[in-house]
Amino acid sequence: MHSDPRQFAVANPFRQEVEEWQREAAIVTRDLVRVFGQKVAVNHLNLVVKRGEFFGFLGPNGAGKSTTIKMMVGLLRPTTGRVWVAGVDVWREPLQARRLMGVLPEQLNLYERLTGREFLTFTGHMYELPKGEIERRSSELLRLLALEEDADKLIIDYSVGMRKKIALAAALIHNPQVLFLDEPFEGIDPVSSRVIRDILQDLTRRGTTIFFSSHIMELVERLCSRVGIINQGVLVAEGTLQELRARASGTGDMPRDATLEDIFLNVIGVRNEEHNLSWLE
Ligand SMILES: Nc1ncnc2c1ncn2[C@@H]1O[C@H](COP(=O)(O)OP(=O)(O)OP(=O)(O)O)[C@@H](O)[C@H]1O
């Protein structure tokens, strides 16, 4: 181990090259670890997400998805390891990193006593956007996300889906380079779900990188250019859907037209067994 970075620079002749691809990538994690007591929630995660990718992050309940996202966005300090977003070290230059990213966390931390519109205005000011621009972007986001009618209602009176949508609007208002979304479609109705999908696809076409976690396999299959699967804190598969399919069918376990759900269940080791309650006759 090289604890002194200068020592590392001398010892590692590839350092410059490494730093170059780090700058070019949208997200890089190196040996990311998070331990809670005896529990290793994330175990030496090494991941590279390229700019403009729509990356789906999958895993069963408790696999480590939210913990990973929290470490990536600066909400939870890693036990060890490092994270770069758009070339910026998230834990060494947190303010600079925050400007480049939009975040929809799992647990929404909203200002309940503000109206939806006030919350967007507040967020826009935080990112030092000009007043006129904040108004323009807020109105457009509220209209697109069908929140116009409730824009002047307090957030405390919003439904689960409305809260998610206003949080998403706040994550988008500064036009971030990298967007982190933890379960963005949970609690969202089909109409808004379609709108959000369209917005996200448009964003990636314009070069935004999206890293999102979801349990909705069909959506991930439809939207994502690449997928990572985490199980018990370990990244167990990663690639395009075609690559994952080819790998799985190469082992003889999967048909060539396997769905993402088939691949997911196979990778995390769920066999095709009957699941019945013994006491139901
Ligand atoms: N603050 C915490 N204190 C202790 N343990 C935690 C804490 N946060 C997460 N964990 C544990 O870390 C593991 C990973 O949790 P995490 O929330 O990252 O999973 P997840 O993949 O997002 O799950 P889900 O799909 O259910 O949201 C779990 O075992 C969880 O109990």
Give the secondary structure arrangement, pairings included.
Blueprint: H1 5-11, H2 15-24, E1 27-36, E2 39-49, E3 54-58, H3 65-73, E4 80-85, E5 88-89, H4 94-100, E6 101-104, H5 116-126, H6 131-144, H7 160-172, E7 178-182, H8 190-205, E8 209-213, H9 217-223, E9 226-231, E10 234-239, H10 241-250, H11 260-267
Parallel strand pairs: 3-8, 3-9, 6-7, 7-8
Antiparallel strand pairs: 1-2, 1-4, 4-5, 9-10
The protein binds adenosine-5'-triphosphate.
The site of adenosine-5'-triphosphate (ATP) has 11 residues, from strand 2 and helix 3.
Average pLDDT number: 88
- Unreliable segments of 5+ consecutive residues: 1-10
CATH topology grouping: Rossmann fold
**Biggest beta sheet attributes:** 6 strands, mixed
The SS-based structural class is alpha/beta
Helix content: 25-40%
Order of helices and strands: HHEEEHEEHEHHHEHEHEEHH
Write down how many β-strands occur, each being a DSSP E stretch of 2 or more residues.
10
Overall spatial form: globular
- How are the strands of the largest sheet arranged? 6-7-8-3-9-10
Estimate nothing, just give the exact number of structural domains. Answer: 1
Separate helix tally: 11
Q: Could you give the distance between the termini?
A: 60 Å
CATH superfamily: P-loop containing nucleotide triphosphate hydrolases
Distinct ligand kinds: adenosine-5'-triphosphate
